[in-house]
Specification:
It is a multi-pass membrane protein. InterPro entries: Blh_diox. Belongs to the Brp/Blh beta-carotene diooxygenase family. It is built from 16 helices and no strands. The chain has 359 residues and is mainly alpha-helical. It has one domain. Helix 4 runs parallel beside helix 13, helix 6 runs antiparallel to helix 7 and helix 14 crosses helix 15.
Length: 359
């Protein structure tokens, strides 16, 4: 399956040989497997975080965003150039810039006009995107039990719902607090505004959805393994899913999502982008991990800075200002929401080019 994923890209792994297996194996190990082990090691720390003030989670989120979170989408302007033949650097930059300006501007406008609906939309969008990222990581790694678009869509629901839905089930108080911080940037009575979103019925519905989708995905995987699919790929999928269930059930939401964003989602996407860059993929294949990362850091640096300028712009524009650590987190999340929608569009285009959703 992995060979098919890269069959039409312009990168080294789209060569006539099918795939640069050394680069793919190293990328999977460095950007997916090792971070998953690190998250497992951090489970006891995560389990203790509900005992600490939420500001600890805010600090972890800020550090993760500074370290790698903001950078993981900062190479979007080069994705068309590297993933499709015949696209010039100029066309690549212009196309992605227009997507970011139009979609990002629409998200910011939505928060000013209907902040509660925009918050719910951001949660739904992030659920989609983080599921999208994990499906791509599994498919690129070559698991073969997710053979149909429907099976991958189910995995998307599960994987995206783990960071977005499970904290609502396990830690609704802190989840609501973050919602109030975000909505409070735009309205005076944030608590009353978010009341309809945090009802017991919604928590129960999310819990039933997540439990049912997870169990169904496991059962379908068992059936695929019995039909000849690789058992190791399915065990990896199950192991990662159970690890994420434990992480988001035990850890306080802000801390859990901050660590996950940097250590899991962002790093997996960075690995995917490194494989798109011929020179970086070649360096990775030769064991020059630092060289591959230097190339990525160089490419991502300008727009990473641009992302922080977006955060500053939102902070200056919100009606009720920024006066506390929670407000700073809220402003960062609004800015991230504005960048997430166009980022999702670019990643969806890349998924299409690489055949992530093809049977």
């Amino acid at each position: 399956m992995a060979e098919g994923v890269f069959a039409e890209t312009g990168s080294t792994i789209g060569s006539s040989d099918g795939i640069d297996r050394d680069a793919l194996a190293r990328a999977d190990r460095l950007f997916a497997l090792y971070p998953a082990v690190a998250l497992a090691v951090l489970l006891p720390v995560g389990a203790a975080t509900p005992l600490f003030p939420v500001e600890v989670g805010v600090a972890a989120f800020a550090f993760g965003t500074l370290a790698v979170g903001m950078a993981h989408g900062a190479v979007d302007h080069l994705v068309p150039l590297r993933a499709a033949f015949g696209v010039s650097l100029r066309r690549s930059i212009i196309a992605v810039s227009v997507v970011y300006a139009v979609l990002g501007g629409a998200v910011v406008a939505a928060f000013f006009l209907a902040p509660v609906a925009a918050f719910v939309g951001f949660i739904a969008l992030t659920w989609l995107h983080w599921g999208q990222g994990d499906v791509a990581a599994l498919v690129v790694a070559g698991v073969d039990h997710l053979r149909t678009p429907a099976e991958r869509a189910l995995t998307l629901v599960v994987r995206g719902g783990l960071p977005m839905g499970v904290p609502l089930i396990a830690h609704p108080g802190e989840y609501r607090l973050v919602a109030e911080w975000i909505v409070g940037l735009f309205v005076a009575d944030a608590s009353g505004a978010v009341d309809p979103v945090f009802t017991p019925e919604i928590r129960v519905a999310v819990g039933v959805l997540m439990a049912t989708a997870t169990l169904l995905s496991f059962v379908l995987g068992v059936l695929r393994v019995r039909g000849g699919a690789d058992r190791r790929g399915w065990l990896r999928d199950v192991g990662e899913t159970l690890l994420l269930w434990a992480w988001f059930l035990l850890a306080a939401p802000v801390f859990a999502i901050g660590v996950y964003f940097a250590l899991w989602h962002a790093l997996r996407h960075v690995g995917r982008l490194v494989l798109l860059d011929d020179a970086a993929a070649a360096a990775l294949s030769d064991g020059d991990t630092r060289g591959a990362l230097r190339r990525f850091a160089r490419d991502a640096a300008p727009l990473t800075l641009g992302g922080f300028l977006v955060v500053a712009g939102v902070a200056l524009a919100v009606p009720y200002g920024v006066a506390a650590p929670g407000d700073l987190l809220a402003v960062s999340l609004v800015a991230i929401a504005a960048m997430t929608l166009p980022h999702v569009a670019v990643v969806a285009w890349l998924d299409g080019r690489q055949g992530v959703w093809q049977p």
